[in-house]
Amino acid sequence: ACAASCRRRVKMAADRQNINKSWDHIQNKYVGTGHSDMTKFEWASNQHRDTAASHIGHYDMLSYFAVAQNDSIGRVRYQLLEKMLQPCGAPPAKQEDET
User: Higher pLDDT residue, 64 or 13?
Assistant: First the structure.
């Protein structure tokens, strides 16, 4: 019983290490997945950009927004692309650490 329990623990530790390695790979490959030093503003900006990109990529959503706003699809697409530049407004001023 102890041997089986020990094997399970070793396997779980190996799985955990494998997941951490693949998560590190995903974070390096894709900008929007975040990291421990990411600010709230950066995270929110990535979320807004991902959402706008999804809306632009799905024609049905784009046409729904166009009908709801009584605008052309091209204008709605342009507005969404413009929002992707600074989706949450200007970045906050950086605070200097006092030493």
Answer: 64
Nearest to 76 by CA among 67, 85, 86: 67
Using the structure block, give the residue that is written with the tokens 């779980």.
12
CA distance 12 to 29: 26
H helical segments located in the chain: 2-29, 40-57, 59-69, 73-83
**Per-residue pLDDT band at 30 (split at 50, 70, 90):** confident
Tokens representing 29 are 């490959």
* C-alpha to C-alpha distance for 5 and 14, rounded to whole angstroms: 14
Q: Which residue has the tokens 């396997």?
A: 11
What pTM did the predictor assign? 0.64
Q: How far apart are CA 89 and CA 35, in angstroms?
A: 22
Cβ atoms of 49 and 30 within 8 Å: the answer is no
